[in-house]
Fold these 4 entries.
Entry 1:
Amino acid sequence: MSEPGASTRAAGFSPQWGPIVAGALAAAALALVLHAFAAAVGLSISSTAPTWRDTSFALVLLSGLYLVLSALAAYGLGGYVTGRLTSARYAPDSDEAELRDGAHGLIAWALATILTALIALSATQALSRVTAPGSGNAGPAASVGSESLIAPEIDRLFRSERPPQGDVAATRAEAGRLLLSASSHSGLQPDDRAWLIRLTAARTGLNEADATRRVDQVVARSSETITKARRAGLVIGFMTGAAALLGAVAAWFAAVAGGQHRDGGAVPAWMGHRRPVTTTSRTVLP
């Protein structure tokens, strides 16, 4: 004897892509709005301005918490829209209906995550082209990274009243790559430090003692800046992963709630639609 409904469950899961795409677009749109608001009030997880270097660890943690909350809101909206728009194919309040609605919410979460990542990648590439140093030779990727991370330190290193001579971009790129190694476990190697001193003396016209003093100061500031950026990156990276995982949970339960409301379940008062009450006048005959 076959169990009733077994043939229906054996037919397999066929997702409804219309509600999934609608929920993913809603989640991605709300995420972009919330991130734009965060950038406006100073809670953005990244910034092209040099003032991010002066932010405290508490502000970085607050930015991560805002990222988690915005993910819960965005993915929750996307999951609910997906579950509410999905056509009911099973009996309400059944395990199959809940599993199907939750799976639709997870697929919408995955699609929204991909859309958000693509948009963020495009924005990052556009900003990197704007903020990258203008030069005919692009140089290695580390050169552009050093220009955006420790650009003020490189400016202090080669600050001089003398007019620049030769390929300034190549010199800055080389110095930036050397300074990036200052925060490593081994630190700046002695031969690299000696070369950086000679390079600074040649570019600025300082004597060896002044060039050595300036290089040591710049190396110390660069190491502090890179260490601070690394710690902030660890916090933001952990918060991003936590936001994605919690967003998946939110999308699942929101899609299940949307499916229950679709099937006639109890809807909160603030989400309900009140139908206007129409009254008909009756004439009472004597």
Entry 2:
Amino acid sequence: MPTETSSPVPRVVVHPERPDGVWEALRALAEQEPMTLVDAADEQDVVDALQEPGAVLATYRWSPRFLQPGLSWVQAMSTGVDQFPLDEFRRRGIGLCNASGVLADCIAEHALACLFALTRNLPQHRDDQRAGRWTPRVGHELVGATLAVVGLGAVGQQVARLGAAVGMTVLGVRRTPGPVGSVAEVLGPDRLLQVCERADALVLCLPETASTRGLIGAAELAALGDGWLINVGRGSAVDESALLHALRRGALRGAALDVVDPEPPPADSGLWNEPRILLTGHSAVLSPRWGTEWTKVLAANLRSERDGTGRVNAVIG
């Protein structure tokens, strides 16, 4: 008589560097789903836990030491996956899923908050307060302005919705032009310069790829003119020397960078002391809800493993 074979209980190895709330959300999940959690204390703990077959690594950080025999797949704690050796994963048959869509609304709100802060001179008002100065400053309205969103994934689309709700005309740039809700016009990357010329504000929501590195350089910033730049995607998309030059010669009005390359900037970087740059320390995605929402993605993928269906947010199947 045939006997049923049960699937092995998944073992999830959790990197010690993780956002607040992740471990608590995973422990709550473990009370509902069959799984074993490994709370790695350091990198060596991770390496040791990846010796047994079938391990799932939950991490944002990557080390070549994690390419151990037991690593089955990785659930990234990030949307971008440029830190992982993708070709090596493919060669070894290691799966990779990202956190695309997790708290897209939070990142989009951060982008709009940065834009409001720049256009209404909020950093300068804080400087005035600290110096004991009462200084009226002329700000700029967003109603009727043109917002260009480069990268129309989950975050970019939410940025577009928020911008349209404020009363902005929204342009979008993505690899495959086509209708997108709240976006008046979607154009391909070959039209980026024209989009910059038409925009009052440019919001970057891009992953890091070979085609996005250095995408915003001197020509694009010159085309943006006296506008504003917001980056909540990847720091490598912006030529920081060109950005500093555009700000110092008085062309660009301001920039808010949640991401830079490298992070943090070197101590002698001009980004620290440029008064028209607002640095927000890669905080756009940070929220008390992050651990819970990210864990939902992991839970869906663990169930997919058990049921034999495709994983969600799969970068490498």
Entry 3:
Amino acid sequence: MGQPMTTTHEVRGHLKNVLAGQARNRQGNCRIHGAFTETLMPNDQWSGCPECLEEGKAQQRQAEQRDRAGQTRAAKLEQLREGAMIPRRFQQRTLENFATDGHDGKAFALAASRRYVERFEDRFAQGGGMVMSGSVGTGKSHLAYGIGNALLDQGYRVMGIDVYELIDLIKERAFSQKGGSEREAIKAFVAPLDLLILDEVGAQLGTEWERLMLFKIINERYKQMLPTVLISNCDAKELENYLGERVVDRMNEGGGMTLVMDWPSYRTPTDNQGRA
């Protein structure tokens, strides 16, 4: 059932005059659109240039559409961040707040990380990954998650996860869920993700099965030309022994690279940033 009209006496009278052809009109001149006819409104204000009014309405509609698009994008980014599994400690790590402290090696690593983000469209097309190796406290995780956070902001699907947690999820999906399998568990870390960041690679030797699962994920992503970033405290030789020379070599294909971060740890007893 329709709602009763709530227009005022003045508005109803004005509408009546308009319909009867008795409304007060006058000629006006717009600096933009030229001559026009305007009508005296119930509030004793003249209606103004109709084309200007329409343009104003169009601009308002566009602004509303931009607001809705912005809200949609913000909601999408929030959803991407929730799915990224980036640890809380690293959610605020950016390439902008990485401190080089005047160190040439740190400056080079930062520049390489920025280039990776800037050229990610090419890296994504070619499957180019990155290996960050070095001792603890050199900023490997900061740079890796700085890359991940920057790409999340651009709308890419990113996940960052420790290897031991990755193995736990594979076990859960493969053996604890009805109808689960290793193949299906591995697929969850391949096609749905534009970039996979694997932290603590080689931190624990694990079983042969665990190393095989890690190899399969990295290899499947390599075959599908999907970039992967590996973070490890191992040196180059230890990483080759852990993953195999072929895997490490493949990480450098498609514009990928290895960053060796071999400077001393910049953690101090008073540093609560937890950089790795």
Entry 4:
Amino acid sequence: MIGGARRLFLVTHVNPDGDAVGSTAALAHLASGRGVEAVCYCPDAVPAAFRFLAGAELFTRDTGALDDSDAVVVIDCSDPWRLGPENNRILARRERVVLIDHHTDVAPFGGVNIVDPTAAASGVLVYELLGRLGWPVDVPAAEGLYAAIDTDTGSFRYPNTDARCLRITAELIERGLKTDRVAHRIYESHRFERHILLGLALKTLERELDGRLVLVSVTLEMLSQTGADVEDTDDIVDYARGIEGVEVGAFLREDPGGLVKLSLRSKGGVAVNELARLIGGGGHPCAAGARFEGTLAEARRWVIETVRSALDGGPEG
């Protein structure tokens, strides 16, 4: 379906991460180079850290090109609701939908489903698909695929890192990929305001459950005080996860409208995607997220009690 299309409409999930952007951008970039009219849709903006990727310029928040597309390619999305407010329009073309996903909780909803929960990232599946299509991967596409794999494996620190993704990474390097260039753009190009915010956030670090859970928080006041924005909070959770003795790190960000953004990270002993699903979130066993309806204090209590339950034998709804 993809190989014969002249107009592709590529879609990824709300709050796109490196795998979502990198995989989608790489496929769109290569399709465009073959004369295909490719449009990438996401209801949220591409994070600044990934805007350097070839194909990122093809992202839009407009679904106008959907109806004229020959195929709809949904990437890195385990559940239709994560497609955002236009999910029903997208699903109305189900017979033309190609789903590419690697989440463990995926419920295949495409006319064609390329689903493999053993893959470290959706970028792995896109790379393998490109091989079957006979589309050579150039350096710009390699950067997107590497960004996808690198970010979803926690820079190859998470348990989902396997020989398959490392083999693909080696092949991307053989094609000319410079991993240091990608790492610099993603991890070493933060705004100054982000570091000021980080200093305030680290003052909120607190240990619970005998040090097995560490929480770190950002309030709306902190964002206003520092001039930082929500993108500047990405990866703050890793400072909680990286403490000795921690099994789960939790980041809580106060958002407008009585919402709290939760980011959960595990060292492997707790499947945090199962915890996130309790309140409508999702993700991976070692990295997941959700939105909590309530105050920061209420979200903190929910995280502590839910992680306590998981450590004691299993989360309770």
